[in-house]
């Protein structure tokens, strides 16, 4: 399956780190005072049922279940109250991360940017409350992450407003809203599934 469900080709993928209270506690980190932003390249995008390629330079590659927001139109400097009318919809995203390289580099670009490290799908869904959704990951059918977006540190409206004050967001741009506790490694041959209430299941395989 391709990325044909995306109405507009994105110009960027903006990701939010440490946005669940449970994940911050899991890592022993303080709750951030403002959203922590990083980006993944468009070359990392793949669709449902496609393969995540395990890079030769990494020895630990992790899954991270995330809710993704798809932007509907060009926005800049918008207020929280304006956000929802500028959202095309929501989907599942796996923020695949080379955890060993992330720790080695002390910053996130290399670890997050390998080709195939941003599976997304299976469809875009509107008319759901993004701040009250069950979010899970399953590795080889075994439940690994099990939380709710009500555990967000920064809700979707606050995230999009904040990001729009940093950069212009264009139609099709993807915002990844962070992952809950329970992250862990994948191995070659594994099946990884991200399931979000009201959206469906994003399934990929590690090669």
Essential attributes:
207 residues, mainly beta, Fumarylacetoacetate hydrolase, domain 2, 7-stranded mixed sheet, 5-stranded mixed sheet, 4 helices, 15 strands, 13% helix, 36% strand
Structure, described:
The chain has helices at residues 21-27, 99-105, 109-112, 156-164, and strands at residues 13-17, 36-40, 45-46, 51-52, 61-63, 65-71, 87-94, 97-98, 118-125, 134-139, 142-148, 174-176, 184-186, 191-196, 200-206. The longest helix is centred in the C-terminal third of the chain and has 9 residues, at 156-164. The protein has one domain: Fumarylacetoacetase-like, C-terminal domain (Fumarylacetoacetate hydrolase, domain 2, Alpha-Beta Complex). The two termini are 17 Å apart. 13% of the residues lie in helices and 36% in strands. The chain is mainly β and 207 residues long. The model has no long low-confidence stretch (mean pLDDT 96). 41% of the residues are buried.
């Amino acid at each position: 399956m391709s990325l044909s469900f995306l109405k507009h080709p994105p110009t960027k993928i903006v990701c939010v780190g440490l946005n669940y209270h449970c994940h911050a506690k899991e890592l022993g980190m303080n709750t951030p005072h403002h959203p922590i932003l990083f980006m993944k390249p468009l070359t990392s995008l793949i669709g449902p049922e496609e393969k995540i390629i395990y890079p030769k330079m990494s020895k630990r590659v992790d899954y991270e279940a995330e809710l993704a927001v798809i932007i509907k139109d060009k926005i800049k400097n918008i207020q929280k109250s304006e956000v929802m009318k500028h959202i095309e919809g929501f989907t599942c995203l796996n923020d695949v991360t080379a955890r060993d390289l992330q720790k080695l580099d002390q910053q996130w670009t290399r670890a997050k940017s390998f080709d195939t490290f941003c599976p997304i799908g299976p469809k875009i869904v509107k008319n759901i409350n993004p701040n009250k959704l069950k979010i899970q990951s399953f590795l080889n059918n075994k439940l690994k992450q099990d939380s709710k977006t009500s555990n967000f540190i920064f809700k979707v409206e606050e995230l999009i407003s904040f990001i729009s004050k940093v950069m212009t967001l264009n139609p099709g741009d993807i915002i990844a809203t962070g992952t809950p506790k329970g992250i862990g490694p994948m191995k070659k041959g594994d099946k990884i599934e991200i399931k979000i209430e009201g959206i469906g299941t994003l399934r990929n395989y590690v090669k």
